[in-house]
Every structure is written in structure tokens, then in C-alpha cells.
Amino acid sequence: MSGSVASIRAADRADIDAVSELLEQLGYRQDDRQATEQRLRHWADDPASSVLVAIDAGDLLGVIAVHVGPFLERDGCWGRIVALVVADRARGRGIGSQLVAAAESFAGERGCVRMEVTSADHRTAAHKFYVRRGYLDQAGTSSRFVRDIAVAEHQDHGRTASRSTT
Asked: What is the pLDDT of residue 163?
């Protein structure tokens, strides 16, 4: 891996197309530019979240999204890498490591004592990347369960509980 030269900054509106292209590289279709812009704005407005980009000579080479939240069962909070992708043309240059370090700094500045990331089983190169950075593979010790829910039940991005009528 050669030395990193990218600068890291918060994503902004001008980055929408490049971020969309990177998300497409991960296999996430980005057909609606306005929806992508709205998601980036939502992340920017949330003080517990950040989308960071790596730029080299004006070229956006990578993106990482990180979110922090408090533990319920103990003191402190955790940081979660929600997405990380480096452009195919820039892999092996340390861009991913720079982005992970920036996400860890964001989380650490908010009192986080642990970072976590979920990576699809077929992304074996990504698994090796995280292990090289000190992340422990928890496969076999915990499971992840997901369920889609109706948006109408949670209008304010999960901040409004179901309403009862009495």
C-alpha cells in the first residue's frame, strides 16, 4: 500500500453524483438523484452521523458513512460504519484506511469506545481489510436480524413512536 494523499472532508451537495457512482460500485442502485441528495442532507443534519469523502486533486475517491449511538447496557457509546467504498481506480492507496481513521475520530470525539461494521459474507477482501485494522470478526458469536417496516409507522425517521388513539 502506497502513502495516502487524499484529504478528508464532510460530503456536500456537489458530491452527490460521485457518491452515487461509488454506491453503485457496491451494488446499491442510485436511480433518483433527488433522493440521494435528500439522504445526504439528512445525514448532514444529524449531529450523530457523518458522511465523509476522500478527495485527491479534485477527484472524489471514496466515501464513508458513520453513525454514533449510546450503549444502553453500559457507559459510553459505539460508532458504526454504515457504508465504505473506495473507487476501483484508487484501491490499494490507503484511501480506505484514511476514511476509517476519520470515522473513528468522528466517533471518538463523541465519546465512543467501540466501532462496529457489518460486511456482506461475499465481501471477503473487505473482511481482511477490517481485520488488518484491528476489527474482530464476530461471525459465529452474534447474529444480525433485519426486518423491513412500513415508513408510515415511523414518520420522523424513527423519532416518533407509533401513535395510539384513545
From this structure: 46
Alpha-carbon span 86 to 64, nearest angstrom = 9
Q: How far apart are CA 61 and CA 70, in angstroms?
A: 31
Per-residue DSSP letter, 76: S
- Please state, in angstroms and rounded to a whole number, the distance separating the CA atoms of residues 66 and 32: 22
What are the backbone angles phi and psi of residue 54, rounded to the nearest 5°?
Answer: -105, 125
Helix (H, G, I), strand (E, B) or coil at 138: coil
Does position 30 have pLDDT exceeding 60, yes or no? yes
- Taking the CA atoms of 85, 80, 7 and 53 in sequence, report the sign of the dihedral they define: positive
Identify the structural domains of the chain with CATH numbers, from first to last: 7-139 (3.40.630.30)
For strands 59-70 and 49-56, give the pairing.
antiparallel
Q: Write out the H or E segment, with its range, that includes residue 39.
A: helix 33-45
Per-residue pLDDT of 128-152, as tens digits, reads 999 999 999 988 888 778 888 887 6
How many CA atoms lie less than 13 Å away from 125 in the CB half-sphere?
8
- pTM (2 decimals)? 0.83
